[in-house]
């Protein structure tokens, strides 16, 4: 069965965004882009909440076409065009969305159907509200966290309303020159 891996930038004190959704504190450079691109490139399914999906749709389909497009923009734009997208939303419809599936009700069954399909791990990008919903139903199998060297003090936390303890097994870590540290965990069931 395929696994859902949550890919998230996080502050040292556990926030994924500032109080108003700010993400300007996240450190991303070519070293992190290149490292992440290897793992992301192996994925064939991306999972998003509605808000994150709409942000991605506003940027990635045309990112490679811009005159100042970076190597990362070109590579990720190509990947985004080909990857199957799954969106958790109670308001979006599946109509006319190329290579996209919308799960609007019965989250547990909808996600398990995707997990039982063919393919590589399913990468859950950002999407704190969707992540919280999946956590509450024990549907996340791993956490790929990029811990940024900052304490926000307040914001949108990654871990909220966790019903039971979630035991994790550390697979690997990596320190980047920017001070960001990658922590790659799998849920130890």
From TrEMBL:
UniProt source species: Pedobacter frigiditerrae
Q: Which Gene3D superfamilies match?
A: Dihydrofolate Reductase, subunit A
Q: Which GO terms describe its biological process?
A: riboflavin biosynthetic process
The Bacterial bifunctional deaminase-reductase C-terminal domain extends over 2-180
* GO terms for MF: 5-amino-6-(5-phosphoribosylamino)uracil reductase activity
The name on file for this protein is Dihydrofolate reductase
């Amino acid at each position: 069965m395929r696994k859902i891996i949550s890919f998230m930038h996080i502050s040292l004190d556990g926030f994924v965004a500032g109080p108003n959704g700010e993400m300007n504190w996240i450190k991303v450079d070519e070293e992190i882009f290149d490292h992440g691109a290897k793992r992301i490139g192996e994925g064939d399914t991306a999972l998003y909440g509605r808000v994150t999906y709409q942000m991605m749709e506003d940027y990635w389909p045309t990112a490679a076409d811009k005159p100042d497009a970076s190597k990362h923009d070109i590579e990720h734009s190509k990947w985004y065009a080909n990857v199957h997208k799954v969106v958790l939303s109670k308001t979006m419809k599946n109509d006319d969305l190329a290579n996209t599936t919308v799960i609007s009700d019965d989250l547990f069954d909808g996600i398990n159907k995707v997990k039982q399909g063919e393919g590589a791990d399913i990468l859950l990008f950002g999407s704190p509200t969707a992540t919280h919903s999946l956590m509450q139903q024990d549907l996340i199998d791993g956490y790929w966290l990029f811990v940024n060297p900052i304490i926000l003090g307040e914001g949108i936390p990654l871990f909220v309303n966790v019903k039971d303890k979630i035991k994790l097994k550390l697979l690997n870590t990596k320190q980047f020159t920017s001070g960001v540290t990658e922590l790659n965990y799998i849920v130890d069931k």
